[in-house]
Design a protein that fits this description.
This protein is an all-alpha fold and 397 residues long. The chain contains 17 helices and no strands. The chain has a single domain, classed as Up-down Bundle (Growth Hormone, Chain: A).
């Protein structure tokens, strides 16, 4: 593959790494902000739930704009929004700024800088026979960010405090500005076929896609991914502390998830070249449900937590290249950003419900015990939805 294409993959991975790495640290602030600023965990929990929903609502829009005008400019604008949201919460730590900064601004920022626009650009740039593998490789960039940013944020929170750490993270995401120039800075070149739909045609495109049974099932299954990952990202560190285990184990668990997802995302991308993506997705949701069940039934332990994090990490973002590959096979790549965004909205509705319900349960019951069976049931339903899909009548490049 030419060096120029590798540069696109590397730049996309760097943007995803910073965007997803920063948002992966939100769970570390839940209890420190309460101790430092007197902010109830419900405020940050609600803000992250709003963040997930805004991210989902913004993803089809940013994807449609990127499909028509290029992903790079979308990513650069998202970096400014992401920095503004973190900076606002750092400069004025208050429930209102947490809800608007973390909830709305960073949600829009990650919608532009995270997986949607960047991976669609990769999908258009690389040859069809390498598409799944390269999307998986770029997806692993989010894991590199998680592996690096989580321990860094944990160390900074302990050293300079939670508020100052938010400010440092705000400055760090501005690195995306120069990186974005390496990812489809101009409108994608057309290679025949219909033009990208763009914003104006997005509602009609969404209606047509969701009217197809198998895309609707794929979208419904993606809900479970967001529900499970949203809950674990925000609440796993707190659950670990409530079990009487060291606070540092929460950061180590998130870091372990990130490290194991690096080979996992790449492997899932490779699998999509040889196995129908929906079948592989079903196995991922089944494995997640089994891992969650084993973790909550076993006595809390240091080693058991790290094993759970490793298993979950291996399939953490593996759903992204598989879902992208499934969409590309059914609809082609000209509207990949928009169609992935529509599917991703379901993912983020799941993330909104998972994070918000977890925060409310923590506030009222003081533990997450009643939530784990729901996590298992949602995963099993996603397995059934993906395995119920049929192969496309004619797989597209």
């Amino acid at each position: 593959m030419p060096a120029a294409l590798w540069a696109v993959v590397a730049a996309a991975a760097a943007s995803i790494s910073l965007a997803l790495g920063v948002r992966q640290t939100f769970g570390l602030f839940l209890l420190p902000l309460a101790a430092e600023e007197g902010l109830s965990p419900v405020w940050l929990g609600t803000a992250v739930a709003i963040h997930n929903l805004v991210w989902g609502l913004g993803q089809p829009l940013s994807g449609a704009v990127a499909d028509r005008h290029g992903a790079g400019r979308v990513m650069a604008g998202g970096a400014v929004l992401l920095a503004a949201g973190l900076g606002l919460a750092a400069l004025v730590p208050h429930p209102a700024t947490i809800l608007f900064g973390i909830g709305v601004l960073t949600g829009l920022g990650v919608a532009c800088t995270g997986t949607g626009a960047a991976l669609a650009a990769v999908g258009r740039a690389v040859p069809p026979e390498r598409r799944g593998e390269m999307i998986g490789l770029a997806s692993a960039g989010g894991s590199l960010g998680q592996a690096a940013m989580v321990p860094l944020a944990q160390s900074l929170i302990g050293g300079v405090g939670a508020v100052a750490t938010l400010g440092i993270l705000a400055l760090s995401v501005l690195v995306i500005l120069p990186v974005a120039r390496g990812v489809e800075w101009r409108a994608p070149a057309r290679t025949g076929g219909p033009a990208p739909t763009g914003l104006a045609g997005l509602p009609g495109l969404a209606r047509r896609a969701l009217g197809e049974r198998d895309y609707a099932l794929l979208t419904a299954g993606f809900f479970a991914c967001g529900f499970q990952l949203g809950f674990l990202t925000l609440h796993l560190p707190s659950h670990i502390q409530l079990c009487g285990l060291p606070m540092e184990l929460g950061a180590m668990a998130l870091m372990t998830i990130g490290l194991f997802n690096i080979p996992g995302s790449w492997l899932c991308g490779r699998v999509s070249n040889h196995v129908r993506p929906e079948l592989a997705l079903g196995w991922i949701y089944l494995l997640r449900s089994a891992a969650i069940a084993a973790y909550v039934l076993a006595p809390p332990s240091y080693g058991g937590t790290l094993v759970f994090a490793a298993v979950m990490g291996f399939v953490w973002l593996g759903t992204i290249p598989l879902t992208s590959a499934a969409i590309a096979r059914r609809f082609g790549v000209q509207d990949l950003g928009a169609l992935y965004g529509v599917c991703f909205l379901s993912h983020q509705i799941g993330g909104f419900l998972g994070t918000a319900a977890g925060a409310l349960l923590l506030e009222r019951a003081g533990s997450y015990d009643a939530f784990w069976p729901v996590m298992i049931a949602v995963g099993l339903a996603a397995t059934a939805a993906n395995w119920a899909t049929r192969p496309p009548a004619r797989a597209l490049a």
